[in-house]
Amino acid sequence: MNISAAVPGRTQKAVSRYESQKRRDWNTFCHYLKNHKPPLQLSRCSGAHILEFLRHLDQFGKTKVHTPLCPFYGFPHPPAPCPCPLRQAWGSLDALVGRLRAAYEENGGKTEANPFGTRAVRLYLREVRETQGKARGIAYEKKKRKKVNSASAVCDEEDDEEEILHHPIQDDRGTFKGAVAGTMLTFPPLQQPVSLVQWFR
Description:
Order of helices and strands: HHHEEHHHEEEH
Helix content: 40-55%
Number of strands: 5
Structural class: mainly alpha
Distance between the termini: 28 Å
């Protein structure tokens, strides 16, 4: 079954969005390698270099992560501002690693040597998820994936994006934000997260 033919508008749009974001992410990573001191070659990248790259991105983060000493630690709705640092949200990092892992192999890298798939990277993402969940009083839960008749790579990536949308991140103003291919969607405060399909009906 040709899934593109079955739902041409939705599938084509998702593929285009995902591929363009993956290309931008890959260019950003290659630029990081080029400007690294000393410069890094892609073939010599390890899991440690990927962790260094992910930590480097924290300086551009917009998610407030309270420290254990902060009086608002574990509060999903802090009543006042605090000096705690801004970080990249776990959902954004998780999606980014997934796209770069695919881009690495598409650009000639071997699966067994993919630094984005190393145990160190998986453990780091798990640690970020747990740390941010406790610091912000948020419980991250896995969304059950829906099975499709044709298990194509396009549908797998689309499911990955929808999974992140079902794990909104609440900021200090009580709004929900979901990471979709490197973008942030803002929703009004809700008691429970909803999917985009339900939201726009």
